Amino acid sequence: MTTRRPPDISALLPLTPAIVHILLALADGDRHGYGIMQEVERLTDGAVRMGPGTLYGTLKRMLASGFVEPADERPDPELDDERRRYYRATRLGLAVLEAEAARMQALVGAARAKRVRAR
Amino acid sequence: MKTAARIYAALLFLLPPSLRRTHGSEMQQCARTVAARRGVRAVPALLADLLVAAAREWLALAGGISMNGFGRDVVHGIRLLRKTPGFTLAATATLALGIGANTAMFSLADATLLRPMPIRDPSRVVALDWSTSYPDYLEYRERTDLFDGVAGIAGRDRVMFDVEGERELRSVAFLSGGAFEMLGVRMVAGRPFEIGEDTPGAPLVTVVSYAYWQRRFGGNDDAIGRTVSVNGQPVTIIGVAARDFRGTSLFSSPQFFMPLTATTRVGTGLMSSPRALTSRDVVWMTIVGRLKSGITIDQATAAVDAMYQHQHPPEPGLQADHVQLAPLATRVLGPNPAAVRRFVILLLGVVTLTLVIGCANLANLLLARGAQRSREIGIRMSLGAGRARIVRQLLIESVLLAAMGGIAGIAVAAVLLRLLAAYKLPGGIDIGMMGLRLNGATLAATTVSSVVAALLFGAAPAWRVSRVDAVGSLRDSGRSMTSRNRLRSALLASQVALCLVLLTGSGLFLRSLRNALDVPLGFQPSDVALASVNLSLAHFAPERERAFYAESLARVRALPQVSSAAWASMIPTVGGASMTLEIEGRPPRPGEDLTFAVSQVGPDYFRTVGTRILSGRAFAAADAGIGSPAAIVNEEAARRFFDGNAVGRQVRSSKASPWSTIVGVAENTKLRQLDERPRPMVYFDFDQRYTGELGLIMPAAHLFVRANGNADLLLPALGGQLHGIDTAAPVYDVRTFAEAVRGLVMPQKMGMMLFSCFSLLALGLATVGTYGVASYVSSLRTREIGIRMALGAGSDEIRRLMITNGLAPLAGGLLCGLVIALWSAPLAAAFLLGLSPRDPFIFIGATLLVGTVALVATWIPARRAARLEPVSALRAE
Question: Least buried of A34, A55, B87, B676, by fewest C-beta within 10 Å?
Fold first, then answer.
C-alpha cells in the first residue's frame, strides 16, 4: 500500500508546542500518557513539564486529526503493573512532524544567516 | 494524598464531558503516578494544569476562540500572584470563606428544597396527607387508572437486630413490595423486594442502606445473602439501596428497609399487633403513588378522597375529614414545609451577602493594584497589546484567584458541613442525619459561585484599568483619579450596607435566642438525667415488663446522688401521642376538638421533671396499679373544657373503658415547639399502659431521674443500673433531659451562630475596606494636602476635610443598608421569638456599631494626613 501524503500538509503548520513535544516523544515508539510526560521532560532537560490536563486535551485533538492512534492497553512492568493505554504516532503525524521540523530548520537558517543576536 | 486524589477526581468534572469521558480515568491514573513519584509538592501543579486545561478545552469547544498566548497569560498571572503573596493569601481566604459557605448552604438547599429525594421524576410522586391502614393500602393499589404504582410506607421503628452475634438497635422503614421500583430507587448491589415477598407468610428479607453496608460490611458484595436475625427469626439481606436513599422522610435515616407485612413479626407497638394488617382502624402508613401520565394531582385527590370517605365514613354528627395528595418532596419536609424553605433561603441569603461583601472588598483591592500597574499596562499597550488582550489578562488573574478560592472553598465547605451536622432545621430535621456531602451538584454550585465571584470582583477593575491612556500612564501622574474613586466609594458604600444587613440579622437572632432561653417550658430539664427503653423490642411478657420497671426504679432511687425518679411514656417536646376523650356530663359541642395529648407517668413524675401542680394533687403511690381511676389534666384542658374546675370530674377514652377521676391540674408544658399555643393534655398513671392500646401506641418508656447536682455525673451509674437488671432489655439513649430537649431552641441557635459568624466576617471585611480606601485616597492627595498646609490650613482643617470626604459613602451605605434590612427582616420573622423583626433597638444598635467602626477606619488615615509636614508632603512627588 502506498502512502499518499495529503497535498495540503503545510496547512496544518505551524504546530503548537504541545503537539510537537508529543509527536517527538512518540517518534521512536509507543508510549502511555505518563511515558509521554516523562519523555517530554527528558527531551527538554526538564524545561517543559506537561501536566495530564494539557497532555490529554492535546492528545484528544491529535486523535481527532489522525496524528496519533491508540495502540493496545497493557501493563508497564517498569512502572507499576497497572494496565495503561498506549499511543502511537500515525504516518500522518510523523509526516507533519517532519514538515514542522523542516519549517523550523529554515527559520533557524535564516536567523543564522543574519547573525541575529539580542543586544 | 487521598483527599488530593478525591479533589482531583472531582475537578475532572470541570472538563468538557467528551474529554472527561474518553480520557478522564487515564488523567487520574497519570496524576496518581506523578503524585506518587514526586510527592505532595507536585499536587498544586497538577491542580493548576487541570484548571488551565479545563479553561482551554471549553474555549476551544466554544468555537475556536483564539488560544494564542492563553497559556502565557495564565503563567504571567500566576507569576504576578506569587509576587504578592500577602494579597494573594488575603484574596484567596476571603473567597474561600465566601465560596465555601455558599457551597455548604447549597448542599443543604439541594438536600431539602431542590432534590430532597433521589427518586425518578419526583414531580409525579405524591403522598396522602393522612396515615392509612393496610386494608386501605390494598384498595389504593388497585387504582391503576390513577397511579402507575402505589406504595405503602411506614416510618421509623427501632428494632433489635442480631448481626453475627452482636445485638444492635437499628432503625427500620417498612415499604410495600415493589416500592423501590415505583420510586425509581436503584440498588447498588443485590435486588429490591418484590410484591410477592410482601406477604404475611413469606420468608423475611431486607434491603440495607448504603451507609450501613459500608460501615458494617465494608461495602462487600458478599453481604448479599447473609442472614441477620430479629427476635430469633432469620432475615436475609437481598439488596443495598442507592447511596443517597435514606427512606421517604428527612426526619429519620433507616439502616434497614423491610416489607410492610414484616411489621407483625419484627415491628413494635401498634404495628406489631396482628390487627395492623386487618383493621382499618389501625392507621400506620403513608400512601405514596406515582401519578399516571395525564392524571393531575387534583383529579387523583378527588378520586382518593371519595375512596377515603367510603373507607372511613364520618361518625354521625361529626364532620367528614377530607384527605389530600401533595408532592412527596414537600411532605418529606415535615408538617411545616414553608418554615423549612424560608429558613434555608434565609441561610442562603446570609452566605450570598457574605460572598458579595468579599467580592466588593476584592474589587477594591484589585482597583488599587490596577493603579499600581498602570505603568506596566501602559507599556504593554504601547507595544501593541489591544484592550481586549489587556482585559483578558486581567480577567485571567481574577479567574485564577477565584479558582484558588474555589478549591480552598471546597475544604471550607467540608468543614462547615461537619459543623452544620450538629444542628436541626425548624420542625426538627436533623441535619447530621441527612448525611450532607459534596457531590456533583454542589461542586457545580462551587464552580458557578467562583465564576460569578470572579466576574463580580474582576470585571469592573479590568474595564477601568483597560481605559488607561497609554501615554498618560507612562508619564506616571496618578493625581487625577476621581472617577476611579467614585467606583471605590460605591463599592465601599455597598460593603457598609450589606454589613449592616448581616449585623441586624445577627442582633435579631441573638435577642431571639435570649428570649427562647427565657420561655417557660413547664418543666425544669436541668439536673435531670434520662434513659429510654423499649421492652416490646425484646418481646417481654407483661409480668417481666412490670418487674423491670419496678426493679429499675428501686435501684435508681437507691443511688445516693438521686433525689427522685419516675417512669413516663413520653418525653416532653420529643414526640408523643394523643387521644380523644369523653367527658362525663359534658357532650362535645359542635365542631369542638376533644383531642388530648397523653402521657402515662409514675407517681413521682411531676416532682422529678419539675412540672408544678396548680390545684388538686399529683399522683400518689396509691394511684398506681392497673385500673387506676386517677387522671391529671393540664391548665389548658381545665380552662377549655372544665371552666377551671377540673378536679373531681371524670373522663374516659372509649365507651369500653372505665371512667377516670381527675385528681389534679398541672401547669402547661411545651409539647413540640417553643412558640406553640397550649394544647389540652391528660396524664394517666404509668401502669395504665397494660390496658387498652396506649401501651402499643407508645411502646417506649423513659426513666426521668432528678440528681442532687450535675445530671451528667449520674449518667454512667444510671446506664449501669439499667443494663444490669436484665441484659435482654433494650436500653438506649442514656442522656440528660437538657440534651433531649436541645432541639427546641435549634433554629434560634443556628440562626444566631451563622449570622454572628458571617456578620463578624463582614464587619472585618468592611473595616479593612474602609481603611484601605481612606488611606489610599489620603495617599493620593498627599501633594494637595501639602499645598493646603503650606497655604496655612491647620491640621484640624485637614482632618475635617479628609473625614468629610469619607463620610458621604459611609452615610449612603448605612442608609441603603437600613432600607434593605428593614425590607428583608420579615423573612426572619417566623424564626424570631418574642420580638418584632423590625426591633428598633437592634436596628439603631447595629447602625451605630457599623457607623462607629467605619468612622474609626476613616479617622486613622485622616489623622495621619493631618500630621504631615508640609515640606515632606510636597517632596513626596
Answer: B676
Cα–Cα distance for residue pair B528/B407, rounded to 1 Å:
46
Residue B134: how many other CB atoms lie within 10 Å: 24
From the list B360, B352, B357, the residue with the least C-alpha distance to B459 is: B360
- What confidence score (pLDDT) does residue B870 get? 67
Query: What pTM, to 2 d.p., does this model score?
Result: 0.71
| B30 contacts in chain A (CB < 8 Å) | 33-34, 37, 52, 55-56
Minimal-distance CA residue of chain A relative to B31: A52
What's the mean pLDDT in B658-670?
Answer: 91
B75 pLDDT band, cuts 50/70/90, is: confident
Residue B568 CA to residue B602 CA, distance in Å, equals 6
pLDDT (0 to 100) of residue B478? 45
Give residue B591's region: left, alpha or beta (phi > 0; psi -120 to 50).
left
Q: What is the pLDDT of residue A34?
A: 92
Residue B593 predicted with pLDDT over 90:
no
Per-residue pLDDT at A2: 47
CA B241 – CA B208 distance, rounded (Å): 6
- DSSP-derived secondary structure letter, B718: H
* B704 phi, psi to nearest 5 deg: -95, 135
Calculate the average pLDDT of chain B: 83
pLDDT for position B319:
67
Tell me the sheet residues that pair with A69: A88
What whole-number distance in Å separates Cα of residue B276 and Cα of residue B271? 6
**Mean pLDDT computed over B108-118:** 84
Reduce the secondary structure of B295-308 to three states and give it as a string: CCHHHHHHHHHHHH
Q: Do A52 and B22 touch (CB under 8 A)?
A: no
- How far apart CA B24 and CA B15 sit, in angstroms, is 9
CA atoms within a 13 Å half-sphere pointing along the CA-CB vector of B436 = 28
> How many other CB atoms sit within 10 Å of the CB of residue B868?
18
B-chain CB neighbours of A82 within 8 Å are: 29
* Cβ-based neighbour number of residue B529 at 10 Å: 29
pLDDT at B859: 81
- pLDDT tens by residue, B379-414: 777 777 777 777 777 888 888 888 888 889 988 999
Choose among B332, B360, B329, B333: nearest CA to B344: B333
- Angle at Cα B634 formed by Cα B630 and Cα B635, nearest 5°? 130
Instruction: Cite the DSSP H helix spans in B614-736.
Output: 635-642, 694-697, 715-725
Write the CB contacts of A97 (distance below 8 Å, at least 6 apart in sequence).
Answer: A15, A20, A23, A24, A27, A89
B107: enclosing H helix or E strand: helix B85-109
Please choose, from the candidates B802, B739, B717, the residue with its C-alpha nearest in 3D space to the C-alpha of residue B527: B739
> Considering chain B, what percentage of its residues have pLDDT values greater than 70?
92
CA-CA distances (angstroms) from residue B413 to A54, B104, B105?
A: 28, 5, 8
**Nearest Cα residue to B757 out of B514, B506, B498:** B506
ipTM value, please give it: 0.87
Pairing relationship of beta strands B595-601 and B681-685 according to DSSP bridges: parallel
Indicate whether B557 pLDDT > 90. Answer: yes
Indicate the residue of B22, B49, B60 with minimum beta-carbon distance to A51: B49
CB burial class (10 A; 0-12, 13-18, 19+) of residue B671? buried
pLDDT tens digits for B442-456?
888 888 888 888 887
Interface with A, mutate which of B23, B38, B50 (most A CBs under 10 A) = B23
- Sign of CA pseudo-dihedral A33, A37, A38, A42: positive
Assess contact for A87 and A59: CB atoms under 8 A: yes
> Is 70 exceeded by the pLDDT of residue B484?
no
Q: Which residues of A touch B18 (CB under 8 A)?
A: 60
